[in-house]
Amino acid sequence: MILTADYHTHTKYSDGRDSVLHNALRAKELGLREIAITEHGFSHVVLGLKRKKADKYFADIENARKETGMNILVGIESNILGREGTCDLTERDYEKFDLYLAGVHILVHYESSHDRKNGFKGFFKYNFHAKPPERLVKEQTLGYIHAIERNPIDVLTHINYQCFCDSVEVAKCCADYGTYIEISGKKPHFSDEELFKIAETGVRFIVNSDAHSPKRIGDVKIAMEQIQRVNIPLDRVDNIDGRLPKFRFKEYKERNL
Ligand SMILES: [Zn+2]
Ligand SMILES: [Zn+2]
After folding, report:
1. Distance, CA 180 to ligand 1 centroid (Å)?
2. Could you say which ligand is closest to the alpha carbon of residue 162?
């Protein structure tokens, strides 16, 4: 298994440690065909890409393209803000971005105080290994599903990390809409049994590093190990062995903008 592209990396524009250029140089050194820079979405209270810095972000990516000759996608790891599936990358931003990741994070501007409560409850239950209440699972599942239905999301990042959902229901929706499920090289977020059931829905996968420094770019070792353990056919993973994914957001933009 050889990684073709890494679609989840951060720089100093959110909580990463280094620059766009250094991420791109590392990707080039590794022989990747593409890399995406995917900062946290605008509504993250602490870590998000700042709107007033967005133009500099786009310019930095353009300069790094010129300097390295790499194909660098302007990405975002948008935040899912509650049960309605509202995301913080909105229509007015679409033109400037190439890749639309989305995930659940805490410390964001939630849709409502109830969703804020759910966000924190999920975070604490997860980190204290406590069983989540059924209603929380139901509502966070709904948040994911509405997000996929209502936004042209390319990849859901680290599902069920610090939150809870019925991942098989979410995977079915991803399969229907052409949204990829990420298997993260940074942190295990599915049990093997869970990943097996997810794969049975027919959904397609992307493996990503979620690198916050250049040295972790392309590091998808734990994801690959799990894929082998669970026996997922490699042709279900669309960014390895010379293949590049077919992204939904790009198609959406071609049709609508
Ligand atoms: Zn994340
Ligand atoms: Zn991330």
Report:
1. 15
2. 1
- Model pTM? 0.97
CB 10 within 8 A of CB 212: yes
**3-class secondary structure, 27:** helix
Contact 129, 36 (CB under 8 A): no
Fold of 76-256: TIM Barrel (3.20.20)
Q: Would you list the domain boundaries of the chain? A: 76-256
Listed residue (34, 94, 71) closest to 249, CA to CA: 94
Residue bearing tokens 């040295």 = 215
Separation of CA 229 from chain center = 23
Spatial distance between the Cα atoms of 230 and 223, rounded to a whole number of angstroms:
11
The two three-digit tokens of residue 111, written as one number? 């849709």
Could you report the per-residue pLDDT of 195-253, keeping only the tens digit for each? 999 999 999 999 999 999 999 999 999 999 999 999 999 999 999 999 999 999 999 99
* Residue that has been written with the tokens 């605008």 in this structure: 42
User: 256 CA distance to ligand 1 centroid (A)?
Assistant: 28
- Count CA within 13 A, CB hemisphere, residue 256: 12
Cα 80 to middle of ligand 1, angstroms: 11
